[in-house]
Design a protein that fits this description.
Layout lengths: L4 H27 L6 H15 L5 H32 L4 H5 L1 H20 L9 H25 L5
Helix pairs in contact: 1-3, 2-3, 3-5, 3-6, 5-6
Length: about 160
């Protein structure tokens, strides 16, 4: 093991760059388990909605629960894209820095499809191509916002 201060500093920077991304991917994997199934999440969402809106109907409860679950897909993968962009754009490797958009989008898509594939084997979950699309849209939205922001930050050659 290299104990030079520069090597330790480099390892700490790498951990700071990749650690949050790896932890978020682990969270996504956990969130696709039976613990976060529709039945389990309704035990929290339903009482909260009934507390907020005591006269809400069963159909409205079901609709809001459905939309909440889909919005969480969008948000989960928006965070994944944010962390992937952060990781790749700050890399010490030029290839990763130059290709942050494509690599981040690829990671988002791979994670989305693997997540749904994993759920197809869990009896308390259901796999859905719609969820994959929502996941990818969440990630793609964040990545495009960064791309637009990056282009505005670079002055045009004149």
């Amino acid at each position: 093991m290299d104990n030079r201060p520069e090597a330790r500093q480099s390892a700490l920077r790498r951990l700071g760059r990749y650690g949050p991304l790896v932890l978020w991917i682990a969270f996504i994997s956990f969130a696709s388990s039976g613990e976060f199934s529709s039945e389990n999440s309704s035990r929290f969402v339903r009482p909260f909605l009934l507390w907020l809106f005591p006269t809400i109907s069963e159909a409205q409860l079901a609709g809001v629960h459905f939309l909440t679950r889909k919005a969480s897909h969008l948000a989960e993968y928006a965070v994944l894209a944010f962390l992937a962009r952060r990781t790749f754009a700050q890399s010490s490797r030029e290839f990763l820095r130059r290709r942050w958009f494509e690599l981040s989008l690829m990671l988002v898509a791979v994670c989305a499809f693997l997540d749904e594939f994993k759920q197809s084997y869990d009896p308390s979950r259901s796999a859905s191509i719609l969820d994959c699309l929502i996941d990818i849209i969440g990630g793609l939205t964040v990545l495009y916002l960064f791309r637009i922001s990056d282009k505005r930050a670079i002055p045009a050659a004149g």
